[in-house]
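Many introductory courses stop at the sequence. We go one step further.
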Amino acid sequence: MIPFSVLDLAPIVEGSDAAESYRNTLSLAQHAERWGYKRYWLAEHHGMPGISS
């Protein structure tokens, strides 16, 4: 079996904020673990208003 990973940019949905983005990231990471994903990557971006990572 291929060890799939998740790459999360932690986007900030329009009308939301960074705190909500991190809650969504946590939820996605927990789901990914239950679904059998082997790694969870969080991209790092600086100075991008729509990305909280």
